[in-house]
UniProtKB/TrEMBL annotation:
InterPro entries on file: ZIP (IPR003689)
Subcellular localization(s) per the UniProt record: Membrane
Gene expressing this chain: LOC107058612
Protein name according to UniProt: ZIP transporter
Source organism: Solanum tuberosum
One GO MF term attached to the UniProt entry: metal ion transmembrane transporter activity
Ranges annotated as spanning the membrane: 30-52, 58-80, 101-119
Keyword annotations of the record: Membrane, Transmembrane, Transmembrane helix
Annotated Gene Ontology cellular component terms: membrane
Entry membrane topology: Multi-pass membrane protein
Superkingdom of origin: Eukaryota
Length: 120
């Protein structure tokens, strides 16, 4: 976020954190860690953005790897913590048609996000 020139980079992160289904204690810990690590990461990004050029291949690789790690963590949280709870419920386990529609919806959603990534 600190190395980005676009002020809208935080919106997807905030949306994904708000949709997480945790207890009050876990939410408090997440708020604490987010409050500590976010300013540190932004300061680090601002400091590093002054050191490297945006057009160099090394900086593009580093930014790409960091973006891939962030996306991977968010996908892991979505699939393991959020979707697994829904898909392992008795409502979906007992109804094959509903389960098929749910899988199709997940695949269409992932495909839609992948298509939108073309313009990101």
């Amino acid at each position: 976020m600190g190395a980005s020139n676009n002020p809208c980079t935080i919106r997807p992160l905030v949306a994904s954190i708000c949709e997480a289904n945790y207890g009050m204690r876990m939410k408090s810990m997440l708020v604490l860690f987010f409050s500590i690590t976010t300013p540190f990461g932004i300061a680090l990004g601002v400091g590093l953005s002054n050191v490297y050029s945006d057009n160099r291949s090394t900086s593009l690789i580093v930014v790409g790897l960091l973006n891939a790690c962030s996306a991977g963590l968010l996908n892991y949280m979505e699939l393991v913590d959020l979707l697994s709870y829904d898909f392992m419920g008795t409502k979906l386990q007992n109804n094959m048609k509903l389960q098929s529609w749910a899988y199709l919806a997940v695949l269409l959603g992932a495909g839609g996000i992948s298509v939108m990534a073309i313009w990101a």
